């Protein structure tokens, strides 16, 4: 599954821990003093995401991630290692809205 997204910088971390769902979404991430960075979101939950990127994003950076059906969500990079980053959303994503996103990615995947 692939979904386009975009990220940029903010503040105030949120608790982590909800179950991640596997996805494959093309996205753009933006952190403070960075231009948009292409990423592929690999998993997603109400609390956060994991994405692959070719750019280094520092742990603790605040970013914006734009996702279909969700719009722009604010997140803090919790970890960054070997071209992957894990982010926690500053405000949890509504589970029904997350299901819409997952439904779109599933539909997009079966259409190929």
In short:
By secondary structure, this protein is mainly beta.
Question: What is the topological layout?
Answer:
Blueprint: E1 21-31, E2 37-44, E3 48-53, E4 62-67, E5 71-81, E6 84-89, H1 95-110
Structural commentary:
This protein is mainly beta and 112 residues long. The chain has a single domain (21-107), classed as predicted glycosyltransferase like domains (Thrombin, subunit H, Beta Barrel). Helix content is 14%, strand content 43%. It is built from one helix and six strands, in the order E-E-E-E-E-E-H. The protein has one helix at residues 95-110; strands at residues 21-31, 37-44, 48-53, 62-67, 71-81, 84-89. The longest helix is centred in the C-terminal third of the chain and has 16 residues, at 95-110.
């Amino acid at each position: 599954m692939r979904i386009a997204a975009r990220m940029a910088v903010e503040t105030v971390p949120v608790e982590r821990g909800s179950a991640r769902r596997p996805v494959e979404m093309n996205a753009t991430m933006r952190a403070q003093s960075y231009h948009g960075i292409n990423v592929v979101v690999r998993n997603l939950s109400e609390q956060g995401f994991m994405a692959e990127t070719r750019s280094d994003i520092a742990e603790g950076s605040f970013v914006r991630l734009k996702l279909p059906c969700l719009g722009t969500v604010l997140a803090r990079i919790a970890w960054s290692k070997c071209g992957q980053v894990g982010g926690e959303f500053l405000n949890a994503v509504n589970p029904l809205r997350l299901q819409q996103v997952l439904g779109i990615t599933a539909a997009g995947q079966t259409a190929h």
